[in-house]
Design brief:
Order of helices and strands: EEHEHEEHEEEEHEHEHEH
GO molecular function: uridine phosphorylase activity
CATH topology of the largest domain: Rossmann fold
CATH superfamily of the largest domain: Nucleoside phosphorylase domain
Strand order of the largest sheet: 6-11-10-7-12
Distance between the termini: 40 Å
Number of helices: 7
Number of domains: 2
Family: Belongs to the PNP/UDP phosphorylase family.
Helix content: 25-40%
Protein name: Uridine phosphorylase
Catalytic activity: uridine + phosphate = alpha-D-ribose 1-phosphate + uracil
Shape: globular
CATH class of the largest domain: Alpha Beta
Structural class: alpha/beta
Number of strands: 12
Radius of gyration: 19 Å
Strand content: 15-25%
CATH architecture of the largest domain: 3-Layer(aba) Sandwich
Pfam families: PNP_UDP_1
């Protein structure tokens, strides 16, 4: 991204590549070295109170999503896929000491809820990245699974994000730091995206598309909805905006992908965003599908990511 006054592009100091082996989790904060106890407050964990390497050192895959229920459902699903399920297991919430986020683990897979919107997922990611760093994890791949509104796609289509763009269709995330606006890159790992598309072909269960994802600051006006408490535009205005987004390569809309992409890139995490579309926003704003249909749709990202994880663990075991 070109520099402009007041919005310097943050230089990427990462020295490792996505394809290298033993990729460490990078933090760019010299102040952490001076902390006797790094308290991960919103996880109710800490470096002095918990043995993070023993608890999390074997983590190779992290899956994050909005709701605690969805992430517990994912850990139950992946346990079954990997043959690690225990009929008597309760899969305890590792973050039970707080009500902010939920965290579950089975084998090398960690499942964490992030709440709704950029502020909530940003807080979670700061502490998750530090957790993985303190646990001395390497070669970690992270996925955000979720739901979204599609643009010109049939409901139930899974979108693997090529690039996260803002509400002006630009591939950047803006962060205000000390009163200055810093722009961060929102590219995601292209190789990982292609591997996920290949996994979808192997599954042959649902349509999966590669495209840009628009990340907004709001569910209603920010996404051109007509059904919020306030609306100052017409149906025609909405359609023009969404068609312009479509022309810019946007396939779906959600509220977390930009900061997710930016922070994962900065920390050296190989990352992907996998979201299912609940509706075609060109045809409406409200969900009219039944609960059963929406529940079926919601399972599709975890099926795709689960297949990817199983495939890679099986390959590692056989090699």
């Amino acid at each position: 991204l070109p520099e402009r006054p007041g919005a310097p592009v943050e230089k990427n100091r990462l020295t490792c590549t996505f394809l290298s082996f033993h990729r460490p989790i990078l933090v760019h904060n010299p102040h952490l070295d001076g902390l006797k106890d790094d308290v991960l407050y919103h996880f109710s964990l800490g470096t002095e109170t918990h043995d993070l390497p023993a608890m999390f050192g074997d983590v190779k895959f992290v899956c994050v999503g909005g709701s605690p229920w969805r992430m517990k459902s994912f850990i139950e699903y992946i346990a079954s896929v990997l043959g690690m399920e225990d009929p008597k297991a309760e899969y305890p919430n590792i973050c039970a000491g707080t009500d902010r986020y939920a965290m579950y683990k089975i084998g090398p897979v960690l499942s964490v809820s992030h709440g709704m919107g950029i502020p909530s997922i940003s807080i979670m990611l700061h502490e998750l990245i530090k957790l993985l760093h303190h646990a001395r994890c390497t070669d970690v791949t992270i996925f955000r699974i979720g739901t979204s509104g599609g643009i010109g796609l049939e409901p139930g289509t899974v979108v693997v994000t090529k690039q996260s763009v803002d509400a002006n269709f630009l591939p950047k995330f803006e962060q205000v730091i000390l009163g200055k606006t810093v722009m961060r890159n929102t590219d995601l790992d292209p190789g990982l995206a292609q591997e996920l598309l290949e996994c979808s072909k192997e599954l042959n269960q649902f349509d999966t598309q590669l495209g840009n994802t628009m990340c907004t600051m709001d569910f209603y006006e920010g996404q051109a909805r007509l059904d919020g408490a306030f609306c100052s535009y017409t149906e025609e205005d909405k359609q023009e905006y969404l068609h312009n987004a479509q022309k810019a390569g946007v396939c779906n809309i959600e509220m977390e992908s930009s900061v997710f992409a930016a922070m994962c890139k900065m920390s050296g995490l190989r990352a992907a965003v996998v979201c299912v579309t609940f509706l075609d926003r060109l045809k409406g704003d409200q969900l009219t599908s039944s609960h059963d249909i929406l529940n079926n749709y919601q399972q599709r990202p975890q099926i795709l990511v689960g297949h990817y994880i199983k495939k890679h663990l099986t390959h590692k075991k056989d090699s």
